[in-house]
Amino acid sequence: MKRMLLWGLVAVSLSVGFTRRFDRDKVLHVKPQDESQVNFVKYLSSIVQLDFWRPDSAHAIVPQMDVDFRVGAYQTENIQTLLEQNGMQYEILFQNVQEGIEKQFDGKPNSSNRRHSYSKYNKWEKIVAWTANIAAKYPDLVSRTQIGTTTEERPMYLLKVGKGSVKKAIFIDCGIHAREWISPAFCQWFVNEATKTYGKNKLMTKLLNRLTFYVLPVLNIDGYVWTWTADRMWRKNRSNSSNTNCIGTDLNRNFDSAWCTIGSSDDSCSEIYCGPAAESEKETKAVANFIRHNIQSIKAYLSFHSYSQMLLYPYSYTYELAPTHDELNNVAKAAVDALSSLYSTKYKYGPSASTIYPTSGSSDDWAYDEGIKYSFTFELRDRGKYGFLLPENLIKPTCEETMLAVKNISSYILRYVS
Ligand SMILES: [Zn+2]
Predict the structure, then answer these.
(1) Cα(176) to centroid of ligand 1, in Å?
(2) Residue 17: strand, helix, or coil
(3) CA nearest to 414, candidates 211, 233, 229
């Protein structure tokens, strides 16, 4: 009873705007050298709650992998001692996560008079107002439709960007994982760049004349709102479909592609919980339905995540190469070359399972198996220095270079795909 009361209090305090703090939490980086070190990190995660930033769960760790995780303030000393006793080298990426959270903002964080800005992180209220404004400002190029509602009944707005009626289309989504803030920032940047340079930049003009871009600025809206109001480190959506104490399904494990097999969990408390069934989540369902209804026109699917600087393509759920692997690899290479040409940012590319780690129920595999042969997942900047807490001054360079990759893939679709 006491426990229930306590839970009740926590729930009430969360709902009235309690924001979780991360004072003196640390983020550590390790690179397990062999199986025994891998097992040791997995063992640590079984005795202490570690928040894995990269990879997204302990299960995915293999030798020589870059592993970043957040440790609660009260456990940091223990964990560091245990690592040292076991001869494991580690690096401290954040001494104080709370400070990192505050430092990602230029100027004052969270101040309510911050206007929508492409080089800042915008709250959902600002993004939703922006979707209406940009459609109103460029009626010939942008229109807004609703493809569904989220668990918490927020409208899921999709922007259709392009001149005239629907032609060959590219579907772009951002923000499947709530805490990866650079991702929604990119979707907004993309729409702005497209509208602003139409009629001025030759390539963009051609792309918008001959292609349609469907842009979903935030897929996991409830989770994104939660990262602003309650818990900056939230990843999943906010549904309680498991009817347990644990909230949230990992939407990038909820698509109907080898659902809930490899690299995902049926434990509702896990960060990679696959949900009670494939497409059980309203957000997944809305996206999958939209894509199915428009499958004839959608030629490419691009999904944006962070972090680790990778451009990935199917498959995630198997190490087997996709039937069109060679072409995907060529397209990825060209896109990465274009991206790197601006600031020399290094990207890895390749099939997800072997390049990052195997997962199932991911959106890119699902889209590919539905027949969208050009299906890519971006893991944007950085490679761990700031991780999910990429400072606002890096939004611009990150988005600029990513634009080059997206334009490169789009040109390929325009030229070679019928
Ligand atoms: Zn992600």
Answers:
(1) 6
(2) coil
(3) 211
Structural domains in the chain, CATH included, are 19-103 (3.30.70.340), 124-416 (3.40.630.10)
Place of tokens 């009235």: 16
Nearest alpha-carbon partner for 232 in 23, 55, 389, 115: 389
Residue 5: CA count within 13 A, CB half-sphere = 2
> Among this protein's residues, is 327 annotated catalytic?
no
Ligand 1 centroid to Cα of residue 180, in Å, is: 6
Q: What is the pLDDT of residues 11-53, one digit of tens each?
A: 444 444 579 999 999 999 999 999 999 999 999 999 999 999 9
CA of 378 to the centre of ligand 1 (A): 9
Helix count and strand count (H, E) for the chain: 13, 12
Average pLDDT of the residues of the chain? 94
Cβ(329)–Cβ(200) below 8 Å: no
| pLDDT tens, position by position, 220-265 | 999 999 999 999 999 999 999 767 789 999 999 999 999 999 999 9
pLDDT digits (tens, 9 = 90+) for 385-394: 999 999 999 9
Catalytic residue among 193, 370, 379, 401: 379
Report CA(220)–ligand 1 centroid distance (Å): 11
Full DSSP string of 84-148: HHTT--EEEEES-HHHHHHHTSSSSTT-TTPPP-TTS---HHHHHHHHHHHHHH-TTTEEEEEEE
The verdict on pTM exceeding 0.90 is: yes
Distance from the alpha carbon of residue 177 to the mean position of ligand 1, in angstroms: 5
